[in-house]
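Need a sequence for this fold. Nothing fancy.
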């Protein structure tokens, strides 16, 4: 119902904008070059062939491999260990003000001549938080009782997620600041879109691979069934 309602709102508002909003033709054109689709893709190809851009793209495509499993799988494993999904969703609420404040604070450190320094400094802490998340998953079944989970457990989870958000936003804002700094103003939109797309891809493909590898890398034991393995989904169901 929630998705249906907002889907309807989006359809109505975008349709009204398309029908009622008129372009102001009196405005002077900006200095940024406007190109057709073919020219834009040629331009993108010429940008990505530049040695510095190619090296940077390779860096951001692989930089997030180290913490992809912790980011993608931790929440699912906590649910698997019995933490109610509603509780995890509620724990995201305190993160909202933090997510608003963090970019404002971090932008002070990324506004200088070397914004990627913040990215480099945050990376080891985010990798260490991956170990902390692994410990959290291991600890979860040990504190579970009949009534659910104690309050101190949720406090630890909130603090863990808060620390994770700090490292995540430090890296995110630093990359955005760097992309904005190195982009050619004449083709700023095209340049920024290319770098941001590669940056997003660098975060998504490791998470996809991590999720895909969860089952093959998980060791399961069957209780009460001799000579029966639980290595595959079908065997586990049997």
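Here you go.
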């Amino acid at each position: 119902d929630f998705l249906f309602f907002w889907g309807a709102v989006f359809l109505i508002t975008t349709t009204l904008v398309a029908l009622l909003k008129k372009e102001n033709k009196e405005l002077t054109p900006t200095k940024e070059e406007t190109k057709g689709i073919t020219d834009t893709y040629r331009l993108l190809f010429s940008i990505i062939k530049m040695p510095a851009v190619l090296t940077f793209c390779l860096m951001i495509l692989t930089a997030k491999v180290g913490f992809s499993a912790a980011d993608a799988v931790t929440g699912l494993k906590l649910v698997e260990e019995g933490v109610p999904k509603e509780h995890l969703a509620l724990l995201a609420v305190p993160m909202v003000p933090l997510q608003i404040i963090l970019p404002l604070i971090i932008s002070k450190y990324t506004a200088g001549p070397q914004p990627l320094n913040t990215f480099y400094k945050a990376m080891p802490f985010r990798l260490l938080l991956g170990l902390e998340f692994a410990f959290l998953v291991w600890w979860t079944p040990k504190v579970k009782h009949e009534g659910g989970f104690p309050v101190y457990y949720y406090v630890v989870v909130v603090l863990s997620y808060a620390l994770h958000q700090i490292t995540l936003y430090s890296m995110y804002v630093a990359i955005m600041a760097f992309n904005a700094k190195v982009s050619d103003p004449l083709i700023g939109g095209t340049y920024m879109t290319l770098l941001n797309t590669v940056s997003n891809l660098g975060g998504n493909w490791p998470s996809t691979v991590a999720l895909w590898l969860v089952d093959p890398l998980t060791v399961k034991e069957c209780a009460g069934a001799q000579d029966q393995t639980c290595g595959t989904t079908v065997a586990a169901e049997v």
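For context: The chain has one domain: 38-212.
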